[in-house]
Design a protein that fits this description.
Four copies of one chain form a homotetramer. Chain A is an alpha/beta fold. Chain A contains 14 helices and eleven strands. In chain A, the strands form two sheets. In chain A, strands 1-7-6-5-4-2-3 form a seven-stranded mixed β-sheet, with helices on both faces. The first copy, chain A, has a four-stranded antiparallel β-sheet with strand order 8-9-11-10, with helices on one face. The longest helix of chain A has 21 residues. Chain A starts with 12 loop residues before the first helix and ends with a helix. In chain A, 64% of the residues are buried. Chains A and B meet through helix 5 and strand 3 of A and helix 5 and strand 3 of B.
Chain lengths: 354, 354, 354, 354
């Protein structure tokens, strides 16, 4: 009954097999291994983007920060949702990598940016010229930190506003595959065809051992990105193990298959809680995360049964009985089983009934 | 009829005389001139702070940024009002000087931070440990950007909250003298006795040619401050002209006299507008700034008569007729004359009556 | 015949097995997995340093930069050898992580810093007070970039000079194990007992898939290190795979065994080249790297036989016939076989004889 | 007998008069005063550069750092002389403003960069691609820190090498006027016509109260420069006093007249010391600085007579008798009198004869 985070799950067997297979003989380091050429082609093909620059790094924070630093100047601002990972969970990494850019916090339901909030923030930027920070980039996260997935229309609307203001768009796709299978569209539609310029394409939360891709649909600052990656200590000499994982990830649609499993688990969990008297689903369950609340007794029972999950707003994993205002953030991953979901729902339900 | 800003006014004659007098022979550069010793003593005596470290720089942005950088780490956040100068008008200088610290924006009337807003922000900081930026410093501005002056009680309340959370307090006193004469208390009461650790002590807006002091009531990071000042390019070789100005500023209470003139001018302006039918005073006039609104015709008339002032929210100085939502920010300085105030009020009044 | 770098070799089978074993079920992320507790204990025990803070990161550049950033201020300088990895091969990462510290370049044979060079540089630092960058940290690399290993006396001499000047000492131990087995002393003797405060303890070049430890013998800035690591994007959520590798690395002395293999390979290579007429060994072969020169014909033959290695001074791997001034940098790793060494020497030798 | 530095001298009377005259009524702040328009035209005309962007700041360190930051990226290196002010005397300001660029130190007599040293450094830059810092800008100082002045041919040779390598050239002209009157060429010849892209045009050391211009002959990054200036806290609200000084500086050739006075003083000093038995002139006296050595007794006598000057290599001003290895750095300014020169030479001479 592990719902703490999708980064706590294991790597998929296909991924592990690829790592083992990669461990043969010597290989040129730093991304000069031949498998990286294949990965680049896979991503370009999947995204219908033959000119895209593709790079691998080890963490989502690195992917986001390096991507954003390559899109803004230090005296500019990054527009993002108030609850976004780059604002809330990266200890200021975007500020560090960008040389001190500001983050302008936007609002919107389900941690998705509302167009009005974005437009108002733009209007308020740089009103007194050189005295103000300037317009930088927009960063949107999908699936969002509250489990929402932007519709294609929502993405396009934000990107159109951005484009009208010469603001490049970054997508934090730590859960890109979960959002993609949720929408059922093509990767290109979700990104550059809608106006996204740079993508953090997550793997870590979806069955990899710690690999993320960054895709620059506009490769004009690709060399700068490479230098920033190296300078940030994110160019891995034993890159072959990164390449191998990403290669396996895209082979035979594994990435979609894993995401579908996680999303389905979340749907099962949502359905179970919905039928639980006293439990309330707090946000749309568009991807692999469920936010819900229920009476304290249910939490005590769940935790006593061995369930692990976070309070929301986030604090350390629940230890001991929470107070009444407690809400639960329940994240499923590709390996979450029907059994643990059902056990969990049962524990909650029985606890409430006590 | 110049109400654009107090930084547009001339230097006081005593200041200019001091600069002229300082231009005799050679002097050791970089603050090693003997007059700087006198200035240090003047400030220590006025603030009843014999151990305070005292430094001079050329701009308020430099004073604030260097002060704050010496109080926070790059991975911390600076709590400040949403409308504060450090957030709105310094092009990200605090981020630059601090190595990328975040600014957490607080609310409160008249651009003064409310204790609740501060407490809530503290409670939301660092909840997930290493993943979050950490608690840094509090920065309060008095007189505030909307012309308000914190009472001693208000300062103490914020400083007490800060102290309970190990958060050092910075005061942006670009208009310190205006606030001081408004409160009628001692400089020590307004600062370290209430819990302020570091002060940006403005001179530029109050009759100097471009000099600000930074006072570190806690000198433990004084040497660091000196290195930051030099590294930022803010250690002036011809420092004697800075010293001379600050020396004259504190001689015979000149600083208070100049501030009183500016504050009185604002009171006269406020009184005049209050008697003007159709005009509304928008914020308390605690110091030398008046925020007011009136019908469009009044603005047209004022501008046509040669008045200069800024729209609020700030944009470039008014050119041509503003729209109905227009509000005016009218800043008086030590040299503002009764005549120009009365002329201005008359122009507005007559315009409205047309 | 792969001598390009020790980072091009495969992971050791024990390491791979540990990764596979770690992939069971869920695990708390971000270093909160139970195996990390074991790793911490292993390192503390091996280094006789019960209070040391221990962290894992993915690259040597991250280890060095984060370590150094936690030892210096932005206005200080890092003393290092002119040929050191932090100066030559990290694209300015130490400058980036430290917020713009300087690197002061020292001299000494075999890429080992000479005490005189260090002392002279210290004497020249900060002579004019605030106008100069200040004394920061010393960084020594062993095994060095030219294959040298500092004797314990050499380490102590440098550390003593450092200590007399309040300069903390960092050791870049990307090839720590190779140096350790070369000296035959204890890990503690090579580090804190000689005066080293912070250690980059390499694994990547010695059989791991891309994991390095940072050991802070003085843990006073440990929390700062953790924040810097997160902020730099180097805190891995799927940390369990890092922990598993490091755990296996220290189990049963595997790390020493692997290093001994690499060092022995280098000795065999050196011996072979020494017996090759026309070949010259250029630096002492203290660890796993051999620098040698021989006539052009020998290079052509070696490359034609499939050998891979770098020119020195470093450029891209040799393609086509080099010029006469060519020298070779030949790096052995734990998996280098006697056969490939012998083949290589034979190819060179036959080429020269043509 | 003040030879400590040209920044210790007084402001010229014409400059002071201009400041006094500027103190009339109100003025738009931040460089929007009308006199700044005149200054811009003066500099464009004098430099035959109608498109140049022109900005004023308060210190030479600010001028150099902001100029360089606008020319390089954080992952690039700035080529400069080992003894240059940006390396030796700015506490790392170029690193700070550039976001952590490196400085590559070059050699050459009289603190002038030799073409060979520059070419060799370029050849050694970026040899291993992304692992290395990249080629950034060249910074040359004239008059140099050892009193030398680059000939036009020397400037052109360095600029030609730079141009062949796509390296933009910065000139630190803290003593530009001294160099200009020494060469007797046009400002344009000394700068853009020879290949200089950005100029720090000093005023502070030549009779101003603390004002420097930055001239961007290539204005493509002018807006960036403005943002960097503001963000660095170097945009002065009371800019009118800067404008007034610079305006007077260029009026009627005052800048050249002041520089000629300082240079002539240095020639007189050199001549006097040359005739002093036991004294040796150490570097060519091309501008306003003399480096010389003589026996200890002469220093004791000079200091006892009230002379002030620095040891070289620089330490704090001489206090008490120096050791035998002592050399003197004697800087003349526009206000240095024949009398004090003659007195000084006499004191030295008599001291030696004792």
């Amino acid at each position: 009954m592990f719902f703490t985070s999708d980064n706590g799950g294991p790597a998929a067997p296909e991924i592990l097999a690829a790592v083992v297979a990669a461990n043969t003989g010597n290989a040129m380091p730093y991304g000069n291994d031949p498998v990286m050429d294949i990965v680049r082609d896979q991503i370009r093909t999947l995204f219908e983007a033959p000119d895209a620059a593709v790079y691998l790094v080890g963490t989502g924070t690195a992917a986001n920060s390096l991507a954003l630093a390559s899109m803004v100047q230090p005296w500019q601002t990054i527009y993002c949702h108030r609850l976004s990972h780059i604002q809330e969970d990266e200890c200021g990494a975007p500020e560090f990598y960008s040389g001190g850019a500001k983050l302008t916090l936007l609002d919107g339901d389900d941690a998705k940016i509302s167009p009005d909030s974005f437009q108002n923030a733009i209007d308020a930027t740089g009103r007194v010229g050189v005295h103000n920070v300037q317009k930088g980039a927009l960063s949107i996260t999908t699936a969002s930190e509250l489990g929402g997935v932007y519709t294609l229309n929502e993405i396009r609307t934000l990107c159109d506003i951005a484009k009208s203001n010469d603001i490049p768009v970054h997508m934090d796709g730590a859960r890109f595959a979960n959002a993609l299978v949720s929408l059922g569209c093509s990767p290109a539609e979700m990104t550059w065809k809608s106006g996204v310029e740079t993508l953090s394409l997550g793997g870590t939360k979806n069955g990899l051992m710690g690999v993320e891709a960054v895709v620059l649909f506009n490769p004009k600052r690709a060399w700068e990105f490479e230098l920033r990656r190296k300078r940030g200590g994110h160019l891995f000499s034993k890159h072959r193990y990164f390449s191998a994982q990403m290669n396996a990830y895209f082979d035979n649609g594994l990435w979609l298959e894993l995401a579908q499993k996680a999303n389905k688990a979340a749907q099962r969990l949502k359905a179970g809680l919905r039928q639980t008297e006293g439990a309330t689903i707090l946000h749309p369950v568009d991807a692999n995360t469920v936010f819900a609340s229920w009476p304290r007794k249910g939490h005590i029972a769940a935790v006593n049964s061995g369930a692990a999950y976070y309070h929301w707003p986030k604090t350390h994993p629940m230890e001991g009985p929470p107070d009444e205002s407690f809400a639960a953030r329940l994240v499923c991953n590709w390996a979450t089983t029907d059994t643990e979901i059902d056990q969990f729902v049962k524990a909650v339900s029985q606890g409430i009934d006590l």
